[in-house]
Every structure is written in structure tokens, then in C-alpha cells.
Amino acid sequence: xxxxxxxxxxxxxxxxxMTIHMIVxxxxxxxxxxxxxxxxxxxPVWKVIExxxxxxxxxxxxxxxxxxxxxxxxxxxYKKVVAAIVVVVGIAAFVWGSMTVISWxxxx
Length: 108
Hints:
Elements: H1 2-26, H2 34-42, H3 44-71, H4 73-76, H5 79-102
Helix pairs in contact: 1-3, 3-5
């Protein structure tokens, strides 16, 4: 039941973050301007938004992958192992992605 709730909450969060992403990155100039994106990524507010977006994507995707994998009879016996792998992959991807976003600076 918790995974169902996590899926629904992160789906709403993804709608919000994807809307922000599409409006800010793709809509104004009708093309991606990397110099504007680079300037925006220096701002701590945008870093927080990007990290929350990353968290939502990872949580939604990995929870969905867990549910799909454990639906198979052969895999359902190893739910704890699959859960542990999903948690480790999620934490590693979140740390790696967050460090990338946090360390972003304007090119010299």
C-alpha cells in the first residue's frame, strides 16, 4: 500500500516539476540555450528544484521497477533482496546526481 501511495505522490510531484522544466527550459526561446541554463544552475533555488526533481524521478521510477519485478513469481521470493538493490541504486543515483547539481559552476 505504501508503494501505491509513493507512486501517486511522486506522480503529482513529477507533473509539477515537468511543467516547470518545460516552461523554463523549452518554452521561452523555443530552443535550449545552454548559457541561460548555466546561469540559472548557479542559483541555489534552482539547485534545490533540480534536486527535488531528481528525488521524485528516482523514487517514482524505482518504486515502479520494484513493483514490476516483484510481480513475477520467480522474483517475488526475493523481495527483500530486490528492495535492498533498489534502495542502494536509488541512494547511489541520488548522491551522484545531487553532487553534480551542487557542484555546478559557471564555466570560466
